[in-house]
Amino acid sequence: MNGELLLAIIGVIMGILTSYTDIKTGFIEDRHVFPTFTYIERLFSRGEVEDTGSTGLFSWVILPAAEIGVLYYLVRGLSEGNVFLALSGLIGLIAGFLLGYFLYFIGGWAGGDVLILAAFSALFPYASSYARVRPFYATSYPLHAVTLLFNSIIAIFPFILLYALGVLIARGEGRKLTEVFTENVRLTVEGALWVMAAITFIIVLASAVGVTLNPIIRYALTLVLLFVLGKYRVVGDALGLFALAYGAYTIGTDFLYVFGKLLLTFYAFKLFFSVVKVLRAEVLMEEKPLEEIREWDIIGEWIYEKGGEVRRDRESFLDRLRKGILTGDLSVLNPDYGDVIVSPTAEGIKKEQIERLRALVEEGKLENRFLVKKAMPFAPALFLGFLISILYGDIFWWLVLKMAGL
Question: Are residues 276 and 167 in the same domain?
């Protein structure tokens, strides 16, 4: 049995364990993913680690998946005299953790989801040799975490879309159903135009200088240009239209075909975020009095005390991100909440936070109505994304290649 097949089997076992416990209990056992993390938690929290009390069929199983991935590449790299390969398992672990932590930071994931992505990324920091679609960032660099994340999101998108639309139809929400397909269409078109402007600029620049830019530099420059074009929106629209006309004149209708595919891709992402918004507001969120809230319930708003006043913020991170892109002011992504009482972390509310809210309600400083999220297990989606990445490859990169006509 070769090493890659062994890593795949370990990943499958981990996926089964974490999917079962996530669906059954709503929690991910560290011992099924990254047992060492439990000791890291205790080290930094002086031993005060919350015990979820999770029990079940596989609660006794210990699977050091992340550790196996790191050690496998360490031994293999040292035996081949390749230091970068030796560190690639650790780099993959860190890359997966950072990507997952971003989603944890915006309130979309729980800590267990972060560890699952990190462990899968440690097992496969590079694209699998069994995969048909292998992007450069997962073959030249140990960034397979990007593939795993996008595969997980894209794979479950059709189910989320149908579920959200079904709920709106059942409730007779015709206006909101229409908004799923029509809201932010202008921004979608503008975004496609800005991308074409940025790409055209980079192509012309590279041709004028006579050098081929490194892919990472090229993508980083594209992101910088998109930020500038988004900040100066009218100018960005004008440059995008000019780039479209210039490309059609110099390259022909193929350039317009590429723009059309880019626009369809952007619209698909717009649909995804619109569906997420519907799920958040209409399906996965409900308002409850404090008496109905239990420990580990996920609160869907920020409640904080600042300047002697108790305040609430129900604006989602995606709403703040959109505002930051349109205004060019990214400081809105990290508002100063002062003394945070509760936040929309996927880890859930604790007993002491409930007691503090109860005291504020009794003092008349806070209305006794709170947004509560309904938990959605994401471990099965990560497992599905892992299987797709091993057996087929990167769905997102496949879409990019199709968009480019390759």
Answer: yes
Domain-ending residue, one of 257, 282, 307: 282
Contacts (Cβ under 8 Å, ≥6 apart) of 294: none
Domain identity same for 271 and 298:
no
The dihedral region occupied by 303, where left means phi > 0, alpha psi between -120 and 50, and beta the remainder, is beta
Residue 142 placed within a domain: no
Residue 344 inside a domain? The answer is yes
- Residue 78 near residue 91, CB atoms below 8 Å: no
Please choose, from the candidates 322, 56, 375, 89, the residue with its C-alpha nearest in 3D space to the C-alpha of residue 188.
Answer: 322
Q: Tell me if residue 158 falls in helix, strand or coil.
A: helix
Model-level pTM greater than 0.85? Answer: no
The domain containing residue 49 runs over which residues? 3-125
Provide Rg for the chain, Cα atoms.
Answer: 23
Q: Is residue 150 part of a domain?
A: no
In this structure, is residue 151 part of a structural domain?
A: no
**Residues 378, 100 contacting (CB under 8 angstroms):** no
What tens digit of pLDDT does each residue of 107-159 get? 667 778 889 999 999 999 999 999 999 998 899 899 999 999 999 988 888 88
Q: Please, what is the Cα angle at 152 between 147 and 157, to 5 degrees? A: 125
Residues 159-177 have a mean pLDDT of: 82
Q: What is the pLDDT of residues 208-254, one digit of tens each?
A: 777 777 777 777 888 888 888 888 888 889 999 999 898 888 888 88
